[in-house]
Amino acid sequence: MLNLGKSLPTQKLVTTRWAFATVDGHPLSANVYFAPDGAITGDSPLGGDRWSIEAEEFRLSSAKGQESWRADHLYVRDGSLHVALRGVEDPGREALLYECTPDGHLGFGGQAGLPAGEFLFPRDLQVTPTGLTRVLLVGSCLTELYHRTYAQAIPEVAFDYVLFNSASDLPANPPHPVGSYDFQYLQIPLRTVLTDRIITGGRIFDPAFLDETYRDGCVMIDAMLEAGLAYNRAHGLLTFVATFVVPQLDIAASLDRRSADGDLAYLIRRLNHYIAQAIKPYQNVFLCDVDAVAASLGKRYFLDDITGFYAHGSNVQQDGVDLVPAARIEPVPLINTFYESRQREFLLAVYEQAVATYRTVRQIDQVKAVIFDLDNTLWRGLIAEDFHPDRFPWPRGGWQNGIWEAIQHLRARGILVAICSKNDHHIVEAHWDNVVDPPFLKLSDFALTRINWQPKAENVAEICRAFNLTPKSVVFVDDNPVEREAVRHALPEIRTIGSNPYLTRRILLWAPELQLPRLSAEAALRETSIRNQVAREETRAKLSREEFLAGLGCAVAFTRVTEPDQPEFPRVLELTNKTNQFNTTGRRWTHPEILAFLAEGGEIHAFTVKDKFSEYGLVGILYAKAGEGGAEVVQFVMSCRVLGMEVEKAALAYLCARLRETRPAAAITGRLIETSANGPCREVFARAGFARMEESDGPAFRLAPDQDVVAPAHVAVTPEIGLKRAANDASGPAAPPARAGGLGWTKRLFGLGRR
For the domain that residue 469 is a member of, what is the CATH number? Predict the structure, then answer.
C-alpha cells in the first residue's frame, strides 16, 4: 500500500468511474462520476453534490456549500487508486472512494469491440466536426439522467434540461434563447401515456382494455407533442422525438397471446409506430428510435423492467438505503455484481443517435455517389484469374451478398453508384451472372462503369466529372491500400474505405453521411436523370452548340415558395445545403433561418427543368430580397446536372423581370462569395449582363435600372406554377391538425397536472 498524500489529480478524477464504499470495503455504488464543472453525477450516495480541490485537499460539499467529506489520505491497492474519506461534522465517520477502471475508461466496462454509439452510427465518413454548442433536453426523470450524464461526459456542449412529465405547457421561454440551441430532444414519458391504470385496472391482459389504453394513449401522445413542440412551432427549432423502450419480453397472459392484442409489449410497439406517424404534420421534427439502440446494445444491461414496473421504461437504479449493511438480515450486494450494467454506454449511444440525426438533417459531409472496385471488394477473389467453375466452385454467400444488397439500398436513396476496376470489361461482363449469385445485382444497375487498365485515379476523376460532383461528395471503396492512396493523392477530398469487408456494409448502410432527411422526388429519380444526362452529352458531342440547344426542348417552370408546408420546401432546404459547385455564396441554411428570411420579406423562387432527354425535377433556387435602395439576388443555387443548357441565364432573366414588376426603376445586385468549389457559377452574373464591382467583402455585380437580362430563346419559361400562396405570408410553420378533444379534454380525462 503506497500513501500518496491528500491531493488528487483532476484529470484522474474526471476521466474515471468511481465506487463509494464503507470503510471496510462494502460497496454502496459503483457508478459515481465527477464532472469537470464540479458536479457529482451517477448513482451517488455520497451525501455531497459538489467536489473541489482546495489547498491540495479533495473535498465534497452540498449544493449550498456545506462540506460533508474530506480526503484523509490516498493510496494504491491492487492497481486501483483509493481515497480514504473522513466526515467533516463527525470526524469519526469514514468511507472509501476507489476507481473502478484504472485505465480511465468512462464506464464502458472494458467491452470488446466498438461502443454501441460508434457501432450503430459509424464515424468513418466524418470529415467536418459536428460543431454542437447547446442542446435542449425536454422530458421526464430519464431525460434528467441524460442531462447529468452528458454534462459530465461531453463538457464541450452545454445541455439545458426542462422537466416535462405530463401534457402541461412548456415554460414560455427555455433557459437560453431558442436560437442558441442546435436542437431540442423530446422524450415523452411512457407512464404518462399508459397511466397507472395499466397496473391497477384489474384487466391487464384484456385485449379490449389494452385497445382502449392504446387509443387513449394516442390521444395523450398528440397532446404531449402539441405541448412539447411549442418551441418548434413558434420558432422552427429542430427537434428530435424519442420512441419508448419496449420491455425485454412479451407481457401476455399466455403463449398464444404473445405479440397480439393481449400483449402489453405489443401495445408499446404500436405506440412507437403511432409516434412516428404523429410527428409527420410538424415541420423540422424527426424521430430518434431509441428502442432500436436499446435492442442493439441489449436491454438486459440497463432497462429497469427487471426491478421496476413496466410503464416506467427507464434505467435500472439501486437505492442507497438497500445497501446499508444493517438494513437487512442478509446484506444486498451491489447490483452490478449480479446484473451486468452498460447503462452509461446506452446513455451515450442515445446521444450519438441524436448527433448522427443532426448531421443527416444538416447534410454535413453528405455523400452523393459511391464508386466500387470489383475484385475482393464486390466479391471474393479475382474474376479473371480465380473463376474456374469447372475445377472448383466460386465462393458464395457471406459479406459479398450483404454488399450487393447495400448497393441496392444506396440506389433507392438516390445515391449514385459506379464501378472503377482494373479488369477486362468483356471478362467481367461474361462472368457477371455466374459470379453474382444470387442475382442481387446486375452490371446495368451501376450508373457508370469504368472497367479498363487506366489508372484508377483517372477513372475516378472522370466519373466525378460525369456525375457533376466534386470529390468531397464521393466515397471510393477498394480493398487495395495502394489504389486507395493513389486516388486520395490525386483527389485529396475523396473519402476511401474497403480494407475490411466486414465493416463496409455497416458503413454504407448506417453512416449518417449516407442517410437522407427526406426522400425527395428528385433523389428517387437521380440515377435515371444521370443516365439521360450521359445520353444528352453524347448527342451534344455530335452537333454544333447552336444545333444542340435549338433541338433540346428545354423548359423551365417556376414556383414561389412562401411556406414550410409546401411540398417544395424540403427540397429547397436539401438542394441549398448539398450544392457546392453552383452556389453563389456557399451558405448553408437552417429551417428557422429560412423562416426568418421569409418573414423579413425575402423571396424564394424555385424552378424545375426538363428537356427531351429527361425531367430533372426541382434543380434551382433563387433567394431574393428588395428594399428601398433596390433589389438583391441573395443566393443562387443550381444543380450542375443542368449546366450547359443556359438555364441559369433564363432563371436570372425571369427573377429580374419579377423584381422589376413592383420596382421598375430598381438596380439589382448579385453577391458572389468565392469558395473552394464554386468555380462553375463565378461568371453567372457577368454573363447575364451584370457589371462587376469590387467591394471590401468580395465582388458584387450590378444590373442598372435601364438594363434587362435577355433570356435565351431556346429555353421556354413557365411562371409561378404549383401551390399558390399569399406573396408575403411567411409568419411561421403551420400548426398541425387539431387533435381530438383538445389538450384541456386530455388533461381532464387523465387527471394530469401532477409529476
Answer: 3.40.50.1000
Measure the CA–CA gap between 299 and 317, rounded to whole angstroms: 14
Instruction: Mark whether 487 and 623 lie in a shared domain.
Output: no
Q: Among 373, 401, 375, 402, which Cα is nearest to 386's? A: 375
Decide if 724 is inside a domain: no
Q: CB neighbours (10 Å) of residue 755?
A: 9
Going by C-alpha positions, the residue among 235, 322, 319, 328 that lies closest to residue 285 is 235
Q: What is the DSSP letter of 583?
A: B
Helix axis angle for 343-361 and 290-297, nearest 10°, is 140
Rg (CA), the chain: 31
pLDDT digits (tens, 9 = 90+) for 351-383: 999 999 999 999 999 999 999 999 999 999 899
The answer to whether residue 736 is domain-embedded is no
Beta-bridge mates of residue 452: 422
The CA distance from 198 to 509, in Å, is: 38
Same structural domain for residues 82 and 159? no
Name the domain count of the chain: 4
Phi/psi of residue 326, nearest 5 degrees? -80, -5
State the number of CA atoms in the 13 A half-sphere of 643 facing the CB.
Answer: 19
Cα end-to-end distance, the chain, whole Å: 49
Name the stretches of the chain with pLDDT < 50: 1-2, 102-112, 722-755
CB 260 within 8 A of CB 269: no
Tell me: do 290 and 399 sit in the same domain: no
Q: Are residues 67 and 210 in the same domain?
A: no
Amino acid at 192: T
Number of H helices, E strands in the chain: 24, 27
**pLDDT for residue 76:** 79
CATH number at residue 548: 3.40.630.30
pLDDT in tens, 100-148: 754 433 333 333 478 899 999 999 999 999 999 999 999 999 999 999 9
Give me the residue label for grid cell 491528500. 6
Q: What is the pLDDT of residue 647?
A: 96
Domain contains 108: no
Q: Which residues pair with 397 in a beta bridge?
A: none
Identity of the amino acid at 387 = F
Which amino acid appears at position 306 of this protein? I
Q: Are residues 412 and 505 in the same domain?
A: yes
**What single letter denotes the amino acid at residue 313?**
G
Strand partners, 587: none
On whether residue 731 sits in a domain, the answer given is no
Residues 414 and 514: their CA atoms lie apart, in Å, by 10
Looking at the structure, tell me whether residues 554 and 658 fall in a common domain: yes
Q: Which of 125, 114, 116, 157 is nearest to 512 (CA)?
A: 125
- Same domain for 269 and 186, yes or no, is yes
Quick check: helix, strand or coil at residue 60? strand
CA-closest candidate to residue 246, choices 191, 323, 303: 303
Q: For residue 291, what is the domain's CATH number?
A: 3.40.50.1110
The 3-state secondary structure of 128-188 reads CCCCCCEEEEEECHHHHHHHHHHHHHCCCCEEEEEECCCCCCCCCCCCCCHHHCCEEEECC
Give the three-state DSSP class for 695: strand
Confidence at residue 739, expressed as pLDDT on a 0 to 100 scale: 39
DSSP calls for 387-399: --TTTSPPP-STH
Burial class (CB in 10 A: 0-12, 13-18, 19+), 341: buried
Angle at 145 between CA 30 and CA 229, to 5 degrees: 170
- Tell me which residue has cell 452529352: 537
C-alpha cell at 713: 430563346
Closest by CA to 651, choosing from 558, 552, 514, is 558
Query: Which H helix or E strand runs over 223?
Result: helix 207-228
Range of the structural domain that residue 440 is part of: 369-388+395-515
Beta partners for residue 418, in sequence order: 371, 448
SS3 assignment, position 452: strand
The verdict on 177 and 93 lying in the same domain is no
